[in-house]
Amino acid sequence: MARNGSGLETRQYMEQDQITTANKTALLLQQAGESEIDHGTLQFLLFRVQNRYYGIDILEIHEILKPVPVTRLPNVRPDVLGVINLRGNIIPVIDLHKKFFDQYTELNPGCRIIVGTCEDKNIGLLVAGISEVARIHAENLEARDMEGVSARHIRAVGRSNDKVFLIINLAVLYQKTEVTLAPGSRPALTETPEQGNHG
Asked: If one looks up domain 7-191 in CATH, what number appears?
């Protein structure tokens, strides 16, 4: 997931790229927050995984990054790509395509890592690209009931215009993959007893 190039120049380019992406993300979240206050709507950032749309509550998004180098860890589930260091915070990164469909995301220029926040903890989700922000009313949310999707990872089903999307439960994802870092130690991943279940 590293860019071409080497040394300080590559790192500076990547850092500047992240700053630009972070600024765009901040503007997106600010506009979304203002819209939610003004119109009383719920808002979700949509993206596709295989042939389905998924969504994350705008209020749960901390940042959106272009792919950065990931530190791989031993003895973790295949969907856990490793961890990234985001301004001193160690964040686990999960490949959602691998998580839900057992196939790794094909890297392309549109790939993004969505850094979500749940109970003051962050988790990164690798996706093939961002679609749009959907604004819907609460009555357009439905109970989670779709074939082929692990229900525990889905909070509800949303509908916006002609799109049906599944709202991801970040709390459940984080419960299954938690990073711990003791002073002076290497990043370590704490897994739940369901480690062998990739679904």
From this structure: 2.40.50.180
